[in-house]
Design brief:
The complex is a heterodimer of chains A (252) and B (281).
Chain A lengths: L1 H26 L11 H14 L2 H32 L1 H16 L6 H8 L3 H25 L3 H9 L4 H19 L1 H18 L5 H10 L3 H29 L1 H4 L1
Chain B lengths: L5 E2 L22 E10 L8 E9 L3 E5 L6 H9 L6 E6 L6 E4 L11 H11 L4 H14 L15 H13 L5 E5 L7 H18 L2 E5 L3 H7 L2 E5 L7 E6 L8 H6 L3 H17 L6
Helix pairs in contact in B: 2-3, 2-4, 3-4, 6-8
The structure holds adenosine-5'-triphosphate and magnesium ion.
Chain lengths: 252, 281
């Protein structure tokens, strides 16, 4: 706990130092504020964005796309992963598809999803969902196949049937695997939502980003990047807490 | 009670009728009977070929033999974890009346010691609170009072082994299969746990099949010691009756006049068996 605190303090100090250095360089004219506006200007832009109030609508749009994609992707990935691990026939069908989807940069599906689902929420959720589902599929599928056979045998000799095995061995062991990739999944969910908005949309942080970029507004671009970073960090912290709670046997 | 044969593999034709011992002492009716058991993993040579053994109610039978000869495999066949390739395994108790203590002490890492012990009881239909109370009693009996809320990774190897033992004993099995149950315990704990277990087994007249590396332990605990020949195609190459009266005390049993000569005999035979490995040690 103490070490964590120290690391936390160290990291904050390093960040502050970096920001101060950036501000100083910018004021001294060492870097062109057109490309890299000083932190004070970015902060002012952030303030304006929030003071205007219209930013909330965009945050809500990105957030709902990312969260829906995250939850949907977790459910779909887990379902398909369980299915594939239980039914070899399903695995034969799913595995090649998933391997292919895993091999490509999945964001290239964005244009297709926009054609299919329109420029509204649907296409963003779909992209975010696919990104997350493929990741979760492999966690669950792998987690079940690499479950500790000794534990399966223990529960069997104690008199456990399929239901008991699922509850006592498979679900907890898969939970451990999925929790390990939960943070990556949160990142993926936001990637999907923002990239989807970037490609075509009328709302969302990705939309504002593409707008800021088209007007060469570096301060606004940076401000938006910081907003997204802030939200992802908050979700990371939540995911970390969930992980420690669900896996307390590992942290106790 | 008329014993009911439980078939795990191929059916056997003849069942010896159960004859209760009127004195209540000595071995009772058959609990497990293995005949001509053949076991193989995959396409390899059979590990076991022609293993036959019996364990009766109130009888402790131990199985010794070179490492890798197939002792654990015999237990796997009896427990039903691995179907026999040939021969028969007849159980005269319900599968749920059988307890299996494994060679390693793997517990469910996401369940506390108490929950691990309670698991078997709950799978047999006990309510949670009742099962956990019973679990606490067994933990206390094995010298683990107060460790119930700990997760397995917070326990020492010896403590985990005792939790695993509690998990099995809590089911009050009529047939107990144990695979080197005491190997990882330190000498003092080992003595106490073994003596406790012996008392329990004698008073409940549990049938025990014990796999062990420790010849003295095998003799002190059992009525019959079976020597498994080296594999592949291992079989029981010799049986030795241990004529020491029960109830036994581990220390006195070792001092019994029959103990030392038998130990020497078995040790001699076992060494011959291991020697054939061609200096494997
Ligand atoms: N799952 C398995 N697949 C293939 N071979 C196996 C498997 N389990 C055991 N064997 C082989 O079967 C033989 C007997 O193994 P077993 O575990 O029964 O021996 P053991 O007598 O219990 O040995 P030890 O005293 O070292 O525990 C060994 O040669 C081992 O390599
Ligand atoms: Mg073994």
């Amino acid at each position: 706990m103490r070490a964590f605190k120290k690391a936390w303090v160290r990291q904050s100090l390093a960040l502050l130092l970096l920001v101060a250095l950036w501000e100083a360089c910018s004021r001294a004219g060492l870097i062109d504020p057109f490309y890299a506006p000083p932190p004070s200007v970015v902060a002012a832009t952030l303030y304006e964005l929030f003071a205007g109030g219209s930013i909330w609508e965009h945050i809500a749009a990105t957030f709902s796309a990312a969260l829906l994609g995250l939850v949907g992707g977790l459910l779909l990935g887990a379902l398909l992963g369980f299915g594939a691990a239980m039914a070899p026939l399903l695995a034969d069908v799913l595995e090649p598809v998933m391997i292919l989807l895993n091999a490509i940069p999945r964001v290239i599906l964005a244009p297709l999803f926009i054609i299919w689902f329109g420029i509204d929420l649907g296409s963003k959720v779909a992209l975010s969902l696919v990104l997350v589902a493929v990741l979760v599929f492999f966690s669950v599928y792998g987690g079940i196949r690499e479950v500790d056979v000794r534990l399966v045998e223990r529960v069997r000799t104690l008199g456990g049937g399929r239901g008991a095995l699922l509850r006592e061995v498979y679900v907890p062991s898969v939970t451990a695997w999925v929790m390990g990739s939960l943070k990556v999944a949160v990142g993926f969910a936001f990637t999907g939502a923002v990239v989807g908005e970037f490609v075509a949309s009328s709302r969302g942080l990705g939309y504002l980003l593409s707008f800021a970029q088209s007007t060469y507004n570096a301060a606004q671009t940076l401000a938006l990047i910081f907003i997204i970073m802030g939200f992802v960090l908050v979700l990371f912290a939540l995911a970390g807490r969930l992980e420690r709670r669900l896996l307390r046997w590992r942290y106790a | 009670m008329e014993p009911r044969p439980r078939d795990l593999g191929t059916r056997s034709e003849i069942l010896v009728p159960y004859e209760a011992d009127p004195s209540g002492a000595g071995p009772g009716g058959p609990v497990v009977r293995v005949r001509d058991l053949r076991m193989r993993y995959g396409d390899a040579d059979p590990v076991l070929d022609g293993v036959s053994l019996d364990v009766a109610e109130g009888q402790v039978v131990s199985l010794i033999g070179p490492s890798g000869s197939g002792k654990s495999t015999v237990l796997r066949a009896i427990s039903g974890l691995h179907p026999p390739d040939g021969g028969t395994v007849d159980l005269f108790v319900e599968p749920r009346e059988m307890g299996f203590l494994f060679q390693d002490d793997a517990l469910l890492p996401w369940r506390t010691a108490r929950q691990n012990v309670a698991l078997g009881l709950r799978l047999r239909g006990s309510a949670r609170t009742e099962a956990e109370r019973e679990a606490d009693r067994w933990l206390a009996r094995l010298g683990l009072a107060g460790l119930g809320p700990r997760y397995p990774r917070q326990l020492s190897g010896g403590q985990r082994k005792r939790v695993a033992l509690a998990q099995v004993l809590a089911l009050r099995p009529k047939l107990l299969l144990m695979d080197e149950p005491f190997a990882s315990l330190d000498a003092i704990v080992r003595h106490h746990v073994t003596q406790d277990l012996l008392n329990w087994v004698e008073s409940e007249r549990i049938a025990v099949l014990l796999v062990t590396h420790d010849l003295e332990e095998a003799q002190a605990l059992s009525d019959v010691v079976c020597l498994l020949s080296r594999g592949p195609r291992a079989r029981i190459s010799n049986r030795y009756a241990v004529e020491i009266p029960r109830p036994r005390n581990l220390i006195d049993a070792r001092g019994h006049p029959a103990f030392a000569p038998l130990l020497q005999r078995i040790w001699h035979d076992l060494s011959d068996e291991v020697d054939q490995l061609g200096g494997a040690i």
